[in-house]
Design brief:
Elements (H helix, E strand, L loop, with lengths): L7 E12 L14 E11 L2 E7 L8 E12 L1 E3 L11 H8 L4 H6 L4 H9 L3 H17 L2 E7 L6 H17 L3 E8 L7 H18 L5 E6 L6 H13 L3 E6 L7 H7 L4 E4 L5 H8 L4 E4 L1 H7 L6 H7 L3 E3 L13 H11 L4 H7 L2 H6 L16 E4 L6 H4 L6 E6 L2 E2 L2
Parallel strand pairs: 1-4, 5-6, 6-7, 7-8, 8-9, 9-10, 10-11, 11-12
Antiparallel strand pairs: 1-2, 2-3, 4-13, 13-14, 14-15
The chain binds N-(iminomethyl)-L-glutamic acid and fe (iii) ion (FE).
The site of fe (iii) ion has 5 residues, from loops.
């Protein structure tokens, strides 16, 4: 009805409401959560209108009793490759028998194997394959999910992946953020390829609004530092945000470049040392750590603890993909970041909410304070720390997106 007041609902029966402050948090501020016992949450339309103790709550026409649950902001997954075809089960077995991830890639397997399978799939097939993966991430607590392209063998393949994300955005509840990923260059004609990406692919993606950011895999087996600079420069010239996969195996300067260029985030960082930590601590760029990769590839984990102690803003993501992180739960990524990256539970919640939002350039979500999107979780138990504690089962009872329970 035009002009109608947005619906107002008061959520009660909240044993504990826990939230970081709005906006990205760095260093020691990542540990500062607000914890309100016996709380209530007022939602107007799709926004938080008020939070506080139940006894102080304003009246509302509708109330909804959450039965003694702990409530936190919905989680945000700032890094996935959720669209792919085929599988990497043979790679997995080969790695278990001693072949490295990089060796598989160098011999034309790995990412290139997934690219060949993905190239053979239509937009509809790609979205049908991705949908249950996104639903698993959402059940685990994700209200907002980033999805990268990067398995196209050519530009048409990349565009099909981004069109699959656009189709998925119409089919699933919650927010999907598409990113154009320049993953691995062709084995021949690299110079021309980089030029074509800058002059044709990036402008088309920007024009058709198929992605909001451009990401590059900056690594010995992927794009060089100077190729990365050219690609990110073209992205910025076309109004797209930039981010980077860097320091996964080797530090070749990607992190320093991303900080210098004002990237939203640098992701991976397993091999980062003091220079990279200093660069991130001195910039507004988020340091996104991906504990699923450390677990699955047996890599040393990114230095989450050292990054926070140095004053950086850390985010956490699943990196859901078939080759390096078959992790279908953002809550498990949060829980693993405590075990593997040395985050405290409070830092991990901040990393998976307001900091993950900032890694996507979003500032209207991640905290349960007035004005933010009413994306929140009701847990099974009364203590929010179950989110960081539980492995192998879900502590998430229900996910609310814009104030509505996800079916
Ligand atoms: O974030 N390292 C590069 N890209 C992905 C892995 C993709 C794959 O192995 O299929 C990552 O780890
Ligand atoms: Fe990735």
């Amino acid at each position: 009805m035009p002009g109608a007041e947005p619906a107002v609902t008061l959520f009660t029966g909240i044993a504990q409401l826990v939230t970081p402050p709005a906006g990205p948090q760095r260093g020691a501020a990542m540990r500062r959560l607000t914890v309100i016992p016996d709380a209530a949450l007022l939602v107007q339309g799709d926004r938080v209108a008020w939070v506080g103790q139940r006894q102080d709550a304003p009246d509302a026409a509708t109330t909804h009793d959450l039965g003694g649950a702990a409530v936190t902001p919905a989680l945000i997954d700032p890094h996935t490759h959720a669209v792919w075809a085929g599988d990497r089960l043979a790679d997995f077995e080969a790695r278990a028998e001693g072949v490295s991830y990089e060796a598989l890639l160098a011999r034309g397997g790995g990412i290139r194997h997934t690219a060949r399978a993905t190239q053979a799939a239509s937009v509809e097939q790609l979205s049908a394959l991705a949908r249950p993966r996104l639903e698993a991430l959402q059940r685990s607590g994700a209200g907002t999910i980033e999805i990268k392209s990067g398995y196209g063998l050519d530009f048409a393949g990349e565009l099909r992946m981004l069109r699959a994300v656009a189709l998925l955005a119409q089919q699933v509840k919650g927010t999907l953020c598409p990113t154009l990923l320049l993953h691995v260059p062709p084995t021949e004609g690299r110079v021309q390829h980089v030029r074509d990406v800058c002059e044709t692919l990036i402008p088309q993606v920007a024009r058709e609004r198929l992605a909001t950011a451009v990401d590059v895999f900056c690594e010995r087996e992927a794009y060089t530092l100077s190729e990365t600079r050219d690609l990110l420069t073209a992205a910025r010239a076309h109004g797209l945000a930039v981010k980077l996969h860097a320091d996964q195996f080797h530090c070749i300067g990607g992190t320093e470049l991303a900080c210098e260029m004002g990237a939203l985030s640098v992701d991976h960082l397993e091999a980062s040392g003091e220079a990279q930590i200093r660069a991130l601590a001195g910039s507004a760029t988020l340091a996104t750590v991906l504990p699923g990769v450390s677990l699955h590839l047996g890599l040393s984990a990114a230095p989450g603890r050292a990054l926070i102690d140095a004053g950086a803003a850390v985010a956490v993501g699943t990196d859901l993909n078939p080759g390096s992180s078959p992790l279908f739960s953002v809550q498990q990524a949060l829980a693993l970041s405590v075990r593997l990256n040395g985050l405290t539970p409070a830092e991990a919640l901040t990393a998976c909410t307001v900091n993950a939002a900032a890694a996507l350039g979003l500032h209207n979500r991640g905290a349960l304070v007035p004005g933010q999107r009413a994306d929140f979780l009701a847990l099974h138990g009364p203590d929010w720390r179950d989110l960081a504690y539980t492995l192998g089962a879900s502590p998430v009872q229900a996910v609310y997106l814009g104030g509505d329970q996800r079916a």
